[in-house]
Q: What sequence folds into this?
């Protein structure tokens, strides 16, 4: 969506709030839903901005208030809230985890029936085929949890509290952080700075790996190649075990060189994304709320394609089947009720009048 007109043309815009001549957000109804009860917050300024860090602090604070209000709205509907987004601005040749390059966050409410279905059908990742497993929980995601534990200084965070890497299933497949006040933590004016800090740490790590361990550049059907390297030359403070695991992963990579489109299952298994890519998911488990950051190297599944429900990593399909008339009406009522709730939220001014 290169223009604001595209946002209006391709989605059903419920609200549009300007922050500056070149920054805004829209609350929209997706045309290819991921759930019955959902809403999407999309960056809607004149210039597309792919990451949360590309926006002003006011934008991040507005997102936090809206997400916290959405969680409150879900509780009124007896739904479990999930908030997620993806970052992958440079992948344009193969399937990307951020197909639409404007920043957009998915706000989804899951029913008790959906949660029960997930609990009943969940299996260990090791029981999946190699191709399916790499799309849902790839090696880089597990390694990313280890790396994050070394490079993110918990004392530098004002709101988020790191969960020890590999201490839980979700802390194995993602870098996991506790929101100590639950969903209300999202309203903290310091939270956007925490998320930007984590992004910058991860981006610095990624760039250092490229500098030290690869040769060549990314482009249309072109990717860097791993070369001989000394793990000790990676100029980032990593513990010995993490540095060894990272070197093992990089040296074992055998990405296939492609010259054009191939089957999706093949591209997402052997041909990497173009640059730094990750998905953020905020969800609750056993009364606690966590932010998860999942790094991607091969997988095309971002914050919408992969959800986290009660600590289970869930592959989510969209656009499956048609909604009945009563479901469409229930969806519209849910969205309209949310906008009314947002107007009366104690911190509504931060979302609706962000420059005050």
A:
């Amino acid at each position: 969506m290169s223009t604001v007109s595209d946002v209006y043309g391709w989605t059903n815009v419920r609200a549009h709030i300007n922050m500056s001549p070149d920054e805004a957000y829209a609350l929209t109804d997706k045309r290819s839903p991921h759930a019955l009860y959902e809403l999407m917050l999309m960056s809607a300024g004149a210039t597309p901005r792919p990451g949360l860090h590309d926006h002003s602090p006011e934008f991040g604070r507005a997102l936090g208030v809206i997400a916290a209000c959405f969680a409150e709205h879900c509780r009124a509907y007896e739904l479990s809230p999930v908030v997620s987004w993806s970052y992958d601005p440079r992948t344009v040749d193969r399937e990307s985890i951020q197909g639409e390059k404007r920043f957009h966050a998915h706000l989804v409410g899951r029913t008790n029936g959906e949660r029960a279905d997930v609990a009943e059908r969940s299996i260990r990742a090791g029981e999946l085929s190699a191709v399916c497993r790499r799309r849902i929980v790839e090696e880089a995601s597990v390694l990313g949890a280890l790396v994050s534990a070394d490079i993110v200084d918990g004392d530098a965070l004002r709101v988020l509290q790191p969960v020890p890497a590999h201490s839980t299933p979700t802390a194995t497949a993602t870098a996991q952080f506790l929101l100590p006040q639950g969903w209300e933590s999202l309203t903290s004016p310091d939270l956007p700075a925490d998320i930007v800090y984590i992004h910058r740490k991860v981006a610095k790590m990624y760039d250092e790996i490229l500098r030290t361990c690869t040769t060549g550049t990314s482009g249309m059907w072109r990717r860097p190649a791993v070369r001989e390297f000394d793990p000790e030359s990676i100029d980032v403070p990593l513990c010995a075990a993490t540095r060894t695991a990272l070197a093992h992963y990089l040296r074992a990579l055998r990405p296939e060189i492609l010259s054009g489109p191939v089957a999706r299952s093949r591209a997402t298994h052997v041909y990497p994304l173009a640059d730094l890519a990750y998905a953020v998911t905020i969800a609750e488990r056993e009364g606690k709320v966590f932010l998860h950051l999942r790094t991607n190297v091969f997988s095309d599944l971002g914050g919408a394609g992969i959800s986290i429900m009660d600590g289970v990593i869930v592959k989510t399909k969209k656009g499956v089947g048609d909604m009945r008339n009563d479901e469409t009406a229930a969806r519209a009522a849910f969205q309209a009720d949310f906008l009314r709730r947002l107007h009366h939220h104690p911190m509504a001014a931060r979302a609706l009048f962000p420059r005050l």
